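Exam revision sheet. Question 4 asks you to relate a sequence to its structure. Input first:
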Amino acid sequence: MAAERRLILRHIDQPGYTPDIDCYRRHGGYKTLEKALRLEAAEGPDGRRLTPQERLRQEVAVSQLRGRGGAGFPTGLKWSLVDRTSGKPIHLICNADESEPGAFKDRQILYKDPHQLLEGMILACYANEAHQAWIYIRGEFIQGARILEKALEEARRAGFLGNNILGSGYDLEIHIHRGAGAYICGEETALIESLEGRRPYPRVKPPFYPTVFGLYQCPTIVNNVETLCAVKHVIEMGGAEYAKLGSPNNTGTRIVCLSGCVRRPGYYEIETGKVTLRELIFEESFGGGLREGRRLKAVIPGGVSSRVFRAGEKVKLPSSDPSEQGAARAVDALDIPYDFTTVAAAGSMSGAGAIIVLDDTVSMVEALANIAEFFAHESCGQCVPCREGSFWISEILRRILRGEGRPQDPDELLRIARNIAGGKTVCAFGDACARPVESFVTKFEEEFRAACGARIGAPAGGE
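Answer key, structure tokens:
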């Protein structure tokens, strides 16, 4: 029977656990930082002498930790790309702008265990020789910002921040920057633009890779809240030990958010790839199944920017038999392991870990109209395909809901979505906007055509 494997959430929700520093230290908090600051140079696997900072970076690389913000980029690789030769200061930014609909895991850490995040940030800064760091927090998290301000002050008073931390000679300051609540600021270069006081337009890459030209044109690391908390556990356990958790190329634990038409919505921490979507939805230790008398209709596996899975849908995955290399096997979408690699191979993505469950009472046309309205509102407006396309997708869906749909509208929705996606915009927002349209209309074609008075398979332009 599938069960949670709590690492980051080990103490959260325990009776009597509070977000203050005394409680955190009673549960072993900041001991990993104290040990890290006492590390000495040592010989590495290749015989080269490694500095304490290099040793920490190596542990993160060995752990195979992947970013938990949505893209799943290897954290150790991101750190290795930092330009350490420019002579410019290195910055670290914690992305706490959790804004993907269906995601609510990072705010649990901010509100309930802020010192775990701070310890992870300090360790990441020390490992990367950064002396200035920022927490970019979503503007709506008003109480979360207050809790973090208090936690920062407690950490300073205890000697974990400021000059000469714990007598190590290492200096670090962490600042809080409250955003204005823009979805686009989840994209790291748009976040940096906002942090610098400008409109959050994503930057063109190349040349503006943050690890080379980031905040104030200095090398910058942008990591998500959960990722930085995981860094603390990687260094505490050791990279090789952490890599034993989860599955190959999907190591460690992940916090998933389960919402929608389930009995027990909430956040759960699992070993990555050791639990299936079906188990997350139906096991009593997780979602507990659907409400009485209802049937599963669809699952959005990684937030609204991911492609939907239809109940009963078969997806093709590479065969696990080494003798059948290159062959594919058909698997029910609900029975795939929930990790970065497998969900992507099945044609969607696990993204920020936001799983939204839809039952047979949900209109897929209404659901997509809601999603499309969100993307039309959140488009930054920099790119014409995204700015205009997201607006027209939302307008067409509104028209369909008013009962004014035209037989050609499903095909028109697909045409617009395909003119937005595929690298036609500066950042991935365009693809995020187009993916749900393409998958909803394609996988629930009969529902969209019925809403528009069209036959299934009717040619574009009407009957």
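Marking note for examiners. The chain has 17 helices and 15 strands.
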